[in-house]
Amino acid sequence: MSGFDFSKRDSFGSRLGVVAAAAGSAVGLGNIWRFPYVLGENGGGAFLIIYLVIMFAIGIPVMMSELVIGRRSQRNPVGAFRVLAPGKPWYLVGMMGIISAFMILAFYTAVAGWTLEYIYQTLTGGFSGKSSVELTAMFDSFRSESLRPALWFSVFMIATSAIVLGGVRKGIEKSTKIMMPLLFILLLVMCIKSLTLPGAGKGMEFLFKPDFSKITGTTVLMALGQVFFSLSIGMGTIITYGSYIQKDNNLAGTSVQVSLIDTAVAVLAGIAIFPAVFAFGISPSSGEALTFIVLPGIFQQMPGGMIFAFMFFLLLALAALTSTISVLEVIVAYFSEQLRLTRRKAIILATLSMFVLGITASLSLGLTSRIKLFGLNTFDLFNTTTANILLPLGGLLIVIFLGWFFPGRDVKDELSNGGSLKARYYSLYRFIIRFVAPIAITIVFLNGIGLLKI
Ligand code: PHE
Q1: What count of Cα atoms within 13 Å lies in the side-chain half-sphere of residue 202?
Q2: Which of 99, 191, 211, 439 has its CA 20 to 30 A from that of 370?
């Protein structure tokens, strides 16, 4: 038989493997590149508090819901809704996820490419002795080049495809288990260095002392978007990984563990970056460049800094890789299961289409800078629309589906592994997915885009 054989679907091997793979998807550039710059642009400490509240009140329940949908249906995001709600339009939520996957993979792999450029710069001494101003100029000129960003994007895209070709268990699970703990340790070392820089205290104050006067509707929407982006929720990555999870896994436990790991890495990244931001006199709202200016600055202050820099950017690239493979896996699972392609063909098709989108995004300050929609270049368009619109909307529809249109006893059955776990949190969870999350997401969304004023 040609095409995809459902009886041979891959699955994760061990409990640790599940957490490692889901955390591998969650932890990445979202934590170390996106979180600090979005927090920096949105007022610091108050943003952090809102982020944490949303993480626990909405992020974790949405992640649980995706795991339920995935494991119950044993399908990709589109197939999942087709199985759970046959003949109904809910599968469109899955389609929206596939579109988000394309957009995220395009700009995210472009940023992952920047980490490769920075590894290269570390090896060739490109940072040495450079001031913050020079580092900023270096970043800006790299981003507006016409070839290199696309070249690094391509290298990264090929690496991603190669791993996904290796299959879920072999490719994804193994690579994450080793890389994640290493990244964590290195991040700790950098926090210590950053905290001992002169003037570091101001950075800690910025990060941890809330000033609620800086909070607007947009800020809250940015926090919501960042939670969704960081947890890889709202587009079906976790549905897809959930479909590979074995029946005895405690889905609520997995969601909590993954979210805690993800939040810890984001906060550590903040502690590594903001003290140095203030010590170097850089503006916390330097945007997308922030991490790429501040980190090389910190490394310069460390004995053997270039070795650390090399290790760090390497691990960051690897953390990004465990995220890009999870996004590509969504597309590949969809192509192979719904369009009945072999995995190999699905991967080739997905990779080729990604080249078009991704190269456009990676050159969005150079060759393709003229391509604009709503005044945004492709990179910004993909970055903003996915995190702030598509993912929250996807999450909203996912909780509405499970909370209102899918039998509650089936949800409970899945969360309690057929009754073998107590699932004492169930009524709270159900209340959240029926009322709290839908209402909160709607209000934050309408308020953030200015349609509602509170
Ligand atoms: N969560 C990943 C990160 O923070 C990015 C991602 C988003 C991955 C959406 C998959 C889906 O780096």
Answers
A1: 12
A2: 99
Contact (Cβ atoms closer than 8 angstroms) between residue 447 and residue 388: no
Q: What is the pLDDT of residues 166-190, one digit of tens each?
A: 876 676 676 677 778 888 898 999 9
Residue 1's pLDDT band (boundaries 50, 70, 90)? very low
Name 438's Cβ contacts closer than 8 Å, sequence gap at least 6.
396, 399, 400, 403
Q: What is the best residue among 35, 37, 108 to mutate for testing ligand 1's pocket, by most ligand atoms within 8 Å of CB?
A: 108
Q: In the chain, what are the domains?
A: 6-448 (1.10.4160)
Residue 105's CB: how many other CB atoms inside 10 A? 29
Place of tokens 């699955």: 11
| Cα–ligand 1 centroid distance for 225 (angstroms) | 11
Q: CB-side exposure of 191: number of CA atoms within 13 Å?
A: 16
- How much is the CA Rg of the chain, to the nearest whole Å? 21
Q: Give yes or no for residue 30 CB within 6 A of ligand 1.
A: yes
pTM: 0.95
Cα gap 353→332, rounded to integer Å: 12
